[in-house]
Design goal:
This protein is mainly beta and 174 residues long. The chain contains one helix and eight strands. The chain has a five-stranded antiparallel β-sheet, with no helix packed on it. A hairpin with a 7-residue loop joins strand 4 and strand 5. The chain is rod-shaped and about 120 Å long. It starts with 9 loop residues before the first helix and ends with a strand. 14% of the residues are buried. The mean pLDDT is 90.
């Protein structure tokens, strides 16, 4: 009859089992990857500026003035340029308002960046340009940057009584 060995100490059983068991072979390797996104500059108008109504006038040296506010939102620190072009494409910001059908008379007005009417606002870039250029320091998607567009009616000659209008195109380049 074969001899049986009884081990009554559990600690000794674990130690003997550890001696005769083979450790499992494990290995670990790692790698990584990036998650990225490129945020592009972005600008837009926040709403449409209100029309400028220069009121009612009689012919003469009228210099009626008006203004409207243009709100721009852009990604942080985005530089942009605002140009204004009357429908006659005048680069200096001097527009020509037309009356109703059949009326060939015109009234002229000028667009300005300041309330002293000293700095014209047109669409000419460069050293002697008249566009509004920003450095991007105030831009944010959270808070619009307000730009006030000032307008002054030039003297009115002998014209038909009528309501005169013009459309101004705003160009935002960033």
């Amino acid at each position: 009859m074969p001899a049986r060995i009884f081990i009554s100490n559990p600690f000794l059983c674990i130690c003997i089992a550890a001696l005769f068991s083979r450790p499992a072979h494990t290995a670990e390797i790692t790698s990584n990857f990036n998650v990225q996104v490129k945020v592009l500059p972005s600008c837009s108008f926040l709403g449409k500026p209100a029309d400028i109504d220069l009121g009612s006038v009689i012919p003469g040296p009228a210099r009626n003035t008006g203004k409207t506010t243009l709100n721009v939102v852009c990604t942080k620190k985005t530089k942009y340029v605002l140009a204004l072009t009357p429908s006659n494409s005048d680069k200096g910001g001097t527009g020509s308002m037309a009356g109703s059908a059949g009326n060939e008379d015109k009234l002229t007005y000028a667009l300005f960046q300041d309330d002293k009417y000293e700095k014209p606002w047109g669409n000419t870039t460069g050293a002697s340009g008249n566009v509004l250029e920003t450095d991007g320091s105030q831009t944010s998607l959270d808070k619009p940057v307000q730009h006030i567009i000032h307008t002054r009616l030039n003297a009115i000659g002998n014209v038909l009584p009528d309501t005169y209008r013009d459309a101004v195109t705003i160009t935002l380049t960033y």
